[in-house]
């Protein structure tokens, strides 16, 4: 007979934390959000930790190289999406690893023949106002000139005006040779009162820019996540189909951690993938697996050698797996169940296998709840897709800026490998939707607010670290009536009274 779970499965919004005693030491500035990412033995140090408990989803609409760089700056890890050709994914990883803080690859480039209209269109698309004019229109072409917003006046110039008539030509540009240190570049910027300094090869090809504002920003990233060679850390997704080619390419590109990207991870395919990686690389390549939603699935993947296990089926904001296939489990219940098994596994074997709560984080406090319930870190898609650093377009809809966000199981992404159970090499039916999310500005500002809330709640619970939160947390279920009580209620909101903004 079928097995029936006794309790209904629940989501994060059905829980709240009940505050504990906070001492005068318990202030947000003293909170550490450091957390393990990969397995380690009792008494040993975890070989890969993060400074904040957040990773970005393995999705086309979320994790490209900009997210890789941006999130590492904030102390977390982006998992570069797998639903693209191997060489392209490896290039993205390589660009994050080669990124030198403060040295920016030029993504807004023009050719001599381009016009003012092209400049404006490029600015609209990338949001960047400093543009290189190169012989081949790429970020590594020979530098012929620079265009910034100080070089043109839209109201007084014809849109068909050629770039070469108003750009600052190469001979008038202050530049620095490849190999210049960030400190020396900054001195040149300061001495010449520049906003941007192009770094050039000996034969005049563009390598990167150093921007005045980035140098200042770099000094403000105390949590940035660096490898032993002071490069940013980055992750990448793999699938259970082409791992024999994809993994070597990603490892060669310098990836720090992999994850098998699948909607359902309790499978022989994942076992085979993990075994292949272990036989080829031993413990040197770190790889997470998933997704699972109960202790049984966790134990299977832990026994197969997964470095961490991802938890969550059907809770993603763009995910319709529960509707289409009828599989899944409320995300809070799944995390609680898997965390209990992880602790049992640790007691029995002395091996700690971190777990990642993937999907369904809607409010910032859901992160704190997930941590209190036992997650070591959270994976977020919708959250990160809203920022400048996600690879998607910013569009104006009904007067508000939005970003596009689509599921890996949508017809748009066509990531059939993620849903593959062996057999056909195509997406048989959709498990995800294509959507808009409200644009939310820069990653750094957004995460600062989110993490301030997490730290503050931890202090309310008397916890200065994630393990302490887990030990001290008191969680209560809330009734549907008390959920209403939790929002603004029985008042007329001024925004809605005046018909909104
Ligand atoms: P969310 O943060 O709620 O947007 O969820 C993101 C997660 O949703 C991803 O990490 C992944 O596990 C899942 N996902 C991605 N695509 C799809 C889909 O098309 N169904 N689901």
TrEMBL record:
Binding site for K(+): 314, 316, 319
Record: residues binding NAD(+): 261-263, 312-314
Catalyzed reactions per annotation: IMP + NAD(+) + H2O = XMP + NADH + H(+)
Keyword NAD assigned: yes
Start and end residues of each CBS domain: 92-163, 167-225
Keywords assigned: CBS domain, GMP biosynthesis, Metal-binding, NAD, Oxidoreductase, Potassium, Purine biosynthesis
InterPro entries: Aldolase_TIM, CBS_dom, CBS_dom_sf, IMP_DH, IMP_DH/GMP_Rdtase_CS, IMP_DH_GMPRt
CDD domains: CBS_pair_IMPDH (cd04601), IMPDH (cd00381)
Cofactor(s) needed for function: K(+)
Family (UniProt): Belongs to the IMPDH/GMPR family.
Protein name in UniProt: Inosine 5-monophosphate dehydrogenase
